[in-house]
Amino acid sequence: xxxxxxxxxxxxxxxxxxxxxxxxxxxxxxxxxxxxxxxxxxxxxxxxxxxxxxxxxxxxxxxxxxxxxxxxxxxxxxxxxxxxxxxxxxxxxxxxxxxxxxxxxxxxxxxxxxxxxxxxxxxxxxxxxxxxxxxxxxxxxxxxxxxxxxxxxxxxxxxxxxxxxxxxxxxxxxxxxxxxxxxxxxxxxxxxxxxxxxxxxxxxxxxxxxxxxxxxxxxxxxxxxxxxxxxxxxxxxxxxxxxxxxxxxxxxxxxxxxxxxxxxxxxxxxxxxxxxxxxxxxxxxxxxxxxxxxxxxxxxxxxxxxxxxxxxxxxxxxxxxxxxxxxxxxxxxxxxxxxxxxxxxxxxxxxxxxxxxxxxxxxxxxxxxxxxxxxxxxxxxxxxxxxxxxxxxxxxxxxxxxxxxxxxxxxxxxxxxxxxxxxxxxxxxxxxxxxxxxxxxxxxxxxxxxxxxxxxxxxxxxxxxxxxxxx
Length: 471
Ligand code: NAD
Fold this sequence. Notes:
The protein is globular and about 75 Å long. It folds into three domains: about 5-145 and about 270-330, FAD/NAD(P)-binding domain (3-Layer(bba) Sandwich); about 150-270, FAD/NAD(P)-binding domain, CATH 3.50.50; about 345-455, FAD/NAD-linked reductase, C-terminal dimerisation domain (Enolase-like, domain 1), CATH 3.30.390.30. The protein starts with a strand and ends in a 15-residue tail after the last helix. The protein is an alpha/beta fold. The protein is built from 13 helices and 24 strands. The strands form six sheets. Strands 1, 2, 3, 4, 5, 6 and 19 form a seven-stranded mixed beta sheet that branches. Helix 1 (about 15-25) packs parallel to helix 4 (about 85-110), helix 1 packs parallel to helix 8 and helix 3 (about 50-70) packs across helix 6. The longest helix is centred in the N-terminal third of the chain and has 26 residues, at about 85-110. The chain has helices at about 15-25, 45-50, 50-70, 85-110, 160-165, 180-195, 215-225, 315-330, 360-365, 380-385, 415-425, 430-435, 445-455; strands at about 5-10, 30-35, 110-115, 115-120, 125, 130-140, 145, 160, 175-180, 195-200, 230, 235-240, 245-250, 260, 265, 270, 285, 290, 305, 345-350, 355-360, 370-375, 395-400, 405-410. The chain binds nicotinamide-adenine-dinucleotide.
C-alpha cells in the first residue's frame, strides 16, 4: 500500500452502513476507499453483534425445539454442549461472511485499508499504521460501542459486555444480566439455553422498555420459565470481585438485596463511537455524541456525510445500510434523494421473537393520536397450533379516517421474518382492507397479518365480533 492514497470518496467504517455505501459507490463508478479498524469488513454487526448473536440464538432455538418436542411425543436426551465447537461454528460463519465482503471490495475495485482512521483535516484521514488518505467526499460510518457505567468498571474479566459475552469463553453456572433490553434478553436467552442460571435486573418497570406491553407479555411469560429470576424496578448499586464471582448489591423491588454471580453481563445500551475520530478538528457538529445531519445525511461540513449508529437512533444495521445508500445517491448527484422512511422495522430475536414497524401503540398514546387497532391472537392460527406455539399475537394499527396501515406489531415464532410484509404495506400506503383482501397462503403464520386486518374490520373467520344491535 502506498504512503498516500488519493480517492474521490472515503468511507470511514466498514459495518453494514459503511460497506453498503462503499459497494454502491463503486457500483456507480465512484473511486472509493473503505477504511475499517478490523482486518476484514463487517463492523460490529458481523464481528461482535447481529451475526454471532443470531448464530448462538439458533443453537438456543434448537435446544428449546428439542425440549418442546416432548409435547409431540418426541423425547430427546439432554443436549451435550461442546462449547469450543459452538464457538468455532460461530467464528467460521463470521470468517466466511467477512471474507466474502473483502472479496466484494476486490471485485469492485474498492481500496480497502485496514486500520483505525482519524481526521487530520477536512480532506485527510490518517490511518494508524497505514497510509494517509486524501479524499474529496467522505461518509462517516463509525458505529457505536457498549455504554459503560462506572459502577461496573472494576477491571474484572467476570464483568462481560456484549462483545466479551459473544466470545463464549465458557458457560458460567450463574449469570446476572444487567439491562432487560435487546442485548440483555437475547444474550440472556443464549446463556440460559446453554445451561447458565440467568437472572435479569432491569431498572424500569418492564422488560424492553418502550415496546408495546401486549407484545412483551408473552415473551416475559416464557422467559420466566427459562430464567432463574427477573427483577424489575431494580438497580445494581455496587459490585465487588470475591473469591468465586462478583458480589452484587441491589436497590429496588428485587426480593433480595445482595447475591454473588459467577459472571455478570452489562447490557445497558450503546453509545455512538464518535469520541476519538478527530471530528472536533474539522468542526463537525455533534449532539449527545451523535453526528448531526440533514435529511440527505450531510453534516454541517457539506462534503462530509454521516450514517448509522454514529448519526442517530435507532441503532439498527438495516437503518445504517439504507442511510449509506442514500448518502451515496446524493453524492452521485441525485439531488432529490432524502431520508423519509415510513417504517423502520425492529426485531428482538428472543423466543418468541418480537417485531414491529411504523407507528406503535405507545407512540400513538404519546402523540395523543386516534388510531384503530386490530389484534389477532395466535390461539386461532392453524399454523401456530401445528407448531405448538399459540403464544403469539399480531396487531395492525390504522388511521381511523382512511383505514391506512400506520403500524404492525408482532410477537411469536418467526415474527422477525413476518414483519417485512408490514414494512411493504406501510411503505406502499396499503389500507387494512388491502391486507385483508390479499390472499395469504394457508396454513402459515403470515395469515395472522391478514386476520388482524380482518379483526379490525369485524370480518375475521376465526374471531367472532359481536354485532352492534340495531336500535
Ligand atoms: P437497550 O437500550 O435495548 O436496553 C438497555 C436496557 O438497560 C434498558 O431496558 C434500560 O432500562 C436498562 N438499564 C439501563 N441502565 C440500567 C441499570 N443501571 N440497571 C439496570 N438496567 C439498566 O440497549 P442494549 O440492549 O444494550 O442494546 C443496544 C442497542 O443495540 C439497542 O438500542 C439496539 O438498537 C441495538 N441492538 C439491536 C438488536 C436487534 O436488532 N435485534 C440486538 C441487540 C442490540
